[in-house]
């Protein structure tokens, strides 16, 4: 409704913008319009086809495509970079993971599927540990305490108070063990069923909860697994500057640059 106010509408993102969210909205709008004009194929070739086939109208489809284009892009990229960094700078982890991946190569498809990544337990442990040790989001993602206030762990919180989660602190909770500052994927494999349940319940808060829970959890985890496998099944990877591997800035989410690695493929070809 606020976009109906002319003076406000001028400062809001627009599909006609040349950069920012508005430019992404423009791409989404063109994509949806083109798909509708072409006609929806009989078989779903994309998520957009599925949405349109199941009754999602054009304007809502534009919103969904916009979210799909920019939501989670930087956070997933950061998660992949951080996971690779912690793997390639930890010789024991690197050896165990590459052994698992490369010994499974003969049974994997040419491009690994999500189901196949799930069959690699140490890979899954690395993904969980990578997200724990370097969560891509530090913003509190605040919520407002509802009318009447609430009491948490014996502490009364008045209504109207903004509260949020400190993810770096939360993911170093004692539930993960005494060595929470160490990247150690084995903790996920060594935990008893009871411990693992407690660890999972804390860890999943990274993706928020309730009506604002991240919609792309499965997609992000799938991408992390597929990228790590496809890289490490083909190449050995070494950080060029392991002591200062990248330049990183945080704006509620982390953004990195200058992350240089040296790669050697299994046939001995070198690249950088």
UniProtKB/TrEMBL annotation:
Residues that bind heme, according to the entry?
214
**Which cofactors are named for this entry?**
heme
User: Which parts of the chain are coiled coil?
Assistant: none
Organism domain of life: Eukaryota
- Record keywords, A-Z: Heme, Iron, Metal-binding, Monooxygenase, Oxidoreductase
Citing just one GO molecular function, the answer is: oxidoreductase activity, acting on paired donors, with incorporation or reduction of molecular oxygen
UniProt lists the family membership as follows: Belongs to the cytochrome P450 family.
Protein known as: Uncharacterized protein
The organism encoding this protein is Aspergillus brasiliensis (strain CBS 101740 / IMI 381727 / IBT 21946)
Q: What is the lineage of its organism?
A: Eukaryota, Fungi, Dikarya, Ascomycota, Pezizomycotina
């Amino acid at each position: 409704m606020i976009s109906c106010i002319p003076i406000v509408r001028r400062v809001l993102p627009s599909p006609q913008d040349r950069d920012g969210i508005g430019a992404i909205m423009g791409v989404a709008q063109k994509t949806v319009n083109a798909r509708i004009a072409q006609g929806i194929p009989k078989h779903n070739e994309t998520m957009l086809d599925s949405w349109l086939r199941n009754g999602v109208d054009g304007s809502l489809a534009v919103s969904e495509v916009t979210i799909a284009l920019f939501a989670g892009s930087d956070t997933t990229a950061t998660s992949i970079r951080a996971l690779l960094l912690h793997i390639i700078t930890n010789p024991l982890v690197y050896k165990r993971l590459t052994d698992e991946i490369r010994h499974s190569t003969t049974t994997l498809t040419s491009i690994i599927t999500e189901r196949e990544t799930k069959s690699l337990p140490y890979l899954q442990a690395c993904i969980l540990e990578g997200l724990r040790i370097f969560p891509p989001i530090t913003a509190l993602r605040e919520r407002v305490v509802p009318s009447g206030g609430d009491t948490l762990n014996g502490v009364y919180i008045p209504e109207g108070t903004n509260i949020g989660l400190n993810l770096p602190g939360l993911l170093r909770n004692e539930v993960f063990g005494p060595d929470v500052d160490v990247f150690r994927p084995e903790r996920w494999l060594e935990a008893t069923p009871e411990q693992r349940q407690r660890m999972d319940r804390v860890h999943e808060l990274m993706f928020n909860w309730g009506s604002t829970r991240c919609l792309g959890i499965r997609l992000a985890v799938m991408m992390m697994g597929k990228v790590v496998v496809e890289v490490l099944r083909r190449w050995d990877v070494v950080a060029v500057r392991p002591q200062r591997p990248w330049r990183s800035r945080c704006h509620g989410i982390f953004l990195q640059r200058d992350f240089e690695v040296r790669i050697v493929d299994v046939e001995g070809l070198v690249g950088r």
